[in-house]
Write a structure and sequence with these properties.
Number of strands: 15
Bound molecules: NADP nicotinamide-adenine-dinucleotide phosphate, zinc ion
Radius of gyration: 20 Å
Strand content: 15-25%
Order of helices and strands: EHEEEHEEEHHEHEHEHEHEHEHEHEH
Number of helices: 12
Length: 333
């Protein structure tokens, strides 16, 4: 379908979209799994593009540069949270990359499953030269969402980090925690992913159903990051936290299920959540990954393969991020 992008304003960057990652959030939106959504919905918030034009006041980019856009495209930039580089927590309402009220053009925002995008430069991330562009796209959501809690809870070498489930976010969490020389354990529901978890650098991979291993790992972890896309029974993961340790839910948006108040107070354990990361921190994860050659494991698809890709994500059959190659939209057959 044809969509309208606003004219390039003084602070805007026009991007020619090259690649866009497929996040499970796209599926939640398209299928109205988080409540009735806005349609038409143009998802996509792991966007890599080439700069085609810049407004007169833009200083960060010039034509020909590569820019990245993650989950947000605007915020008030004056509230306490914005001033603290936490634009994602803007007190006046962050504008998400798609399906958010568009405070500039009216209607709602359209994301990266599209040919072109206009974004104010503050929300465009610099992509250093030499990065593998397709495999860098997922860092703009899956990467920052798992990097941010590791920064906030200061994951250090030798600490024990558990990653609950090996999908798009989970596999980035493993790579980023291994890069910090943490001792990483993956929890998965898929026996077929055990070997992959180890290849990615995890010391151990444990099936949810392995009650022996769960017992052995009681009071073991400094930090757990749970990426499960649906509400799930959390107590078995609270049990494996050490005293004072933290479980960060970045997946499920529903009410949390089955957390024993008793276990939290006896063990002074924390259960919390985290949403993406601010723009400065998103630039940081990109630069961090550029310096260490960290990228996502991806499967490139054409736009017309998207429905099949969604089904495979839902069936836990993604290894480990689909990325749409927009080239076929640009070269006439
Ligand atoms: P994904 O690639 O589909 O990975 C999720 C993994 O969870 C699956 O591969 C599977 O791993 C496991 N799983 C357990 N129960 C499942 C179920 N009922 N259906 C499907 N998978 C299940 O998803 P993702 O893109 O990593 O996103 C994960 C969640 O984080 C989504 O809900 C997404 O909306 C959310 N998210 C949050 C933020 C944030 O800012 N907090 C940012 C991005 C995404 P195993 O096979 O290993 O069990
Ligand atoms: Zn996402
Ligand atoms: Zn704000």
């Amino acid at each position: 379908m044809q969509i309208e992008r606003r004219a390039v304003g003084a602070n805007d960057v026009l991007l020619d979209v090259l690649y866009c990652g497929v996040c499970h959030s796209d599926i939640h939106h398209v299928r109205s799994e988080w409540g009735p959504d806005r349609y038409p919905c143009v998802p996509g918030h792991e966007i890599i593009g080439r700069v085609l034009a810049v407004g007169s006041a833009v200083t960060k980019f010039k034509v020909g540069d590569i820019g990245g856009v993650g989950c947000m495209v605007d915020s008030c930039r004056t509230c306490d949270n914005c001033l603290a580089d936490r634009e994602q927590n803007c007190l006046n309402g962050v504008t998400l990359t798609y399906n958010s009220p568009d405070k500039v053009s009216g209607g709602h925002t359209f994301g990266g499953y599209s040919d072109k995008l206009v974004v104010t430069e503050h929300f465009v991330i610099r992509i250093p030269p030499g990065m593998d562009l397709a495999a860098t796209a997922p860092l703009l959501c899956a990467g920052i969402t798992t990097f941010s809690p590791m920064q906030y809870w200061r994951v250090e070498p030798g600490q024990r980090v558990g990653v609950v489930d090996l999908g798009g976010l989970g596999h980035m969490a493993v790579k980023l925690a291994v890069a910090r020389r943490a001792e990483v354990t993956v929890f998965t529901t898929s026996p077929g992913k055990i070997a992959d978890a180890k290849r990615l650098g995890a010391r151990e991979a444990v099936l949810w159903s392995d009650s022996e291993a769960m017992k052995r790992l009681a009071n073991h972890f400094d930090l757990l990051i749970t990426t499960v896309p649906r509400a799930f029974s959390m107590q078995q993961f609270v049990d494996v936290l050490k005293l004072d340790a933290t479980l960060v839910n970045v997946g499920a948006l529903e009410d949390l299920q089955s957390v024993s108040g008793r276990s939290l107070l006896f063990g002074r354990k924390n259960v919390t959540g985290s949403m993406i990361g601010g723009i400065a921190e998103t630039q940081e994860v990109i630069d961090y990954c550029a310096a260490r050659n960290i990228k996502a494991d991806i499967e490139l698809i054409r736009p017309d393969q998207i429905n099949e890709a969604y089904d495979r994500v839902v069936n836990r059959d993604v290894r480990y991020r689909f990325v749409i190659d927009m080239a076929s939209l640009k070269t006439p057959a």
